[in-house]
Design a protein that fits this description.
heterodimer; A: alpha/beta; Rossmann fold; six-stranded parallel beta sheet; two-stranded antiparallel sheet; 8 helices; 8 strands; B: alpha/beta; 9 helices; 6 strands
């Protein structure tokens, strides 16, 4: 894939919920999607529950590691990690781990609004200009890119679906709030996700 | 004819390796420790396992939780100071979601510790395990190692609860340095 000319500075600021809808509309093969803490998984939830969605409730920064675990367990299934910029800052080391293990079926999407939106919009410590795609490339994820706009995002998602990873897409966000909140019932979320992964069969309906 | 290997009692790490295999625990992310070195070397040498280092113990917990939900069992190897970084993710991921995240903790900070930092952080390990209500067992004797490891893993899986196995210096010898000369 040719290197995108889009940078952290000229990428269009997009609406997280719209991106979630565009992402899930392109998933046709029971791809796993791991939604990171807070507004990231809220908008994944709002885009419509899928049996292969997992919604984190705490453990800030672990969307990529959880997705990596799923990817290692099921190499034939594509896995998307959706992580916020503040969350990724908590666990930057995971990018090195992903680059080293190089799972072909993993894609990391970072939703970068530059602030801790859920706690009142305080700027993150990356306000000085940290470039997450550049950080990812520095960790060894050579094809890490910023999405220029919505059409570019859809093209990049298709590229993730059709080619070997690991992939990394940076997404600059506007400041719109999430549409709704995920139901906070972790045991149910885990059980549904395991069924969605084919890792559990149960006669209990659901 | 009895070979020398058959006559020699198995070392703790040989027992642990066999129990992990018997229980189909394949994924072994770790943050290394000197005491764990023979076990880490053994899981790297055996193609049954997928073993690799992570940058932080939190990351390894996320990986084994994700793998479990997708059908693969794993265990995180760490030392006492690494466990001390985990309270938040243990509470909000394996405890809240009822995921049998397995941990093996090499116990530093007691029975001859030379580093006061390790000795201080050791004090937090059992209170945190108890506060989280997590099943945990100390392995201090070679003859109990197989039983404790095997039953702890089986209970974790059957009850869908995380569990910690603590490797006592009584079992492993711990990490020792010669005291400074006066």
């Amino acid at each position: 894939m040719s290197q995108s000319l889009t940078t952290a500075h000229n990428a269009k600021r997009m609406y997280r919920f719209d991106l979630m809808q565009r992402l899930t509309a392109q998933l046709r093969n029971e791809e796993a999607v791991i939604g990171g803490i807070g507004n990231t998984n809220f908008d994944l939830w709002s885009a419509g529950h899928r049996a292969q969605n997992f919604y984190m409730l705490g453990s800030m920064g672990l969307a990529v590691p959880i997705a990596l675990g799923v990817a290692l367990a099921q190499p034939q299934r594509k896995v998307f990690a959706l992580e916020g910029d503040g969350s990724l800052l908590m666990q930057l080391g995971c990018l090195s781990t992903v680059a080293t293990l190089a799972p072909k079926n993993l894609a990391i999407l970072v939703f970068d609004n530059g602030v801790y939106q859920i706690t009142g919009g305080q700027p993150t410590p990356a306000a000085g200009g940290a470039d997450f795609a550049a950080i990812a490339r520095g960790c060894g994820l050579a094809n890490a890119v910023w999405a220029a706009d919505e059409a570019d995002f859809e093209r990049l998602v298709q590229h993730c679906l059709e080619t070997d990873g690991p992939h990394f897409i940076g997404l600059k966000l506007d400041d719109q709030p999430p549409v709704s909140q995920t139901e906070r019932d972790p045991a149910q979320i885990r059980d549904r996700f395991m069924r969605g992964m084919g890792a559990r069969k149960s006669k209990l309906p659901g | 004819m009895q070979t020398e290997a058959a006559a020699r009692p198995r070392a703790w790490h040989e027992i642990v390796l066999a129990v992990l295999k018997a229980n189909d625990v394949r994924l072994v992310p770790y943050v290394p420790d000197n005491v764990l070195k023979p076990l880490i070397n053994a899981v790297h040498a055996d193609p049954f396992f997928t073993a690799f280092a992570t940058a932080r113990e939190e990351e390894a917990i996320g990986i084994v939780c994700g793998a479990w939900m997708a059908g693969t069992r794993g265990i995180v190897l760490m030392q006492t100071s690494g466990f001390a970084t985990l309270a938040n993710v243990l509470a909000s991921l394996p405890c809240a979601f009822q995921i049998p995240a397995l941990m093996m903790i090499s116990e530093r900070g007691t029975l001859g510790e030379f580093n006061i930092g390790q000795a201080m952080v050791w004090r937090t390990m059992r209170p945190v395990l108890e506060a989280l209500g997590m099943e945990h067992h100390v392995i201090s004797r070679l003859d109990e190692c197989e039983f404790i490891c095997d039953r702890t893993i089986k209970q974790a899986v059957m009850t869908q609860q995380p569990a910690a196995l603590i490797l006592s210096p009584l079992l492993t010898g711990g990490k020792v340095v010669a005291p400074p000369k006066a």
